[in-house]
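**Fold in tokens:**
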Amino acid sequence: MRKNIVAGNWKMNKTFPDGITLIEEIIEKSEDLNNVKLIISPPYIFLKDASNIAAHSKIGIAAQNCSNEESGAFTGEISASMLKSANVNYIILGHSERRAYYGEKDELINQKIKLCIKHNITPIVCCGEVLQERESGEHFKVVSNQIKGMFFGINPEEFTKVIIAYEPVWAIGTGKTASPDQAQEIHQFIRKIITDSYGSEIANNLSILYGGSCKPSNAKELFANPDVDGGLIGGASLNANDFLSIAKSF
């Protein structure tokens, strides 16, 4: 069954004490939220403590990335199996910042998706175009190619474990936001791609999140679209009241 989801990507923010305080505040203030799944994605150093704190709550804990390798001599990397052992049940993959700053390509992201599924972790898989691609009218082609590349070799049963996040790169951290019509158009397009590849039942049960300067002032309008099932939230997830205000926008 399709879920409403609001996931907070903290990126590289918050000291350890401040981060723990924020997690506790979000959990305390979200007890009455029943129609939306909340997910928090803090930096790696918080994950084990966050999963312990959230263990008896409705909050899911996500990592911001994982290795494309199972284990071995890969200094600085953290594997999907390590994260699963710390009770992490979601991992954000393919974020535009990973693509832009660290050169991640669809093939690499595909390897990570397969490892997540192998270890029973739900991947939150990002796709989206940069401003030049949007302005030149290539955004549909870009998103289509990303989805086909990232999910290559993923069978229908495996795909049921996936969440997709559409993030117009030109709207991330810029204050610009896709209009509700723009968001619906591309989310509907993504669902059509999934329908063509995996069938209508799987596509209709897929949660597709919007990421790109989503905040309390525009979340309700964005989430009112039939194919927008929530948000992948950046800056606004660093404030408990803002994050929960977005979650209450359904």
Notes: The first helix runs from residue 16 to 29. Strands lie at 5-9, 37-41, 60-63, 90-93, 122-127, 163-166, 208-210, 230-233. The longest strand covers residues 122-127. The chain has a mean pLDDT of 96.
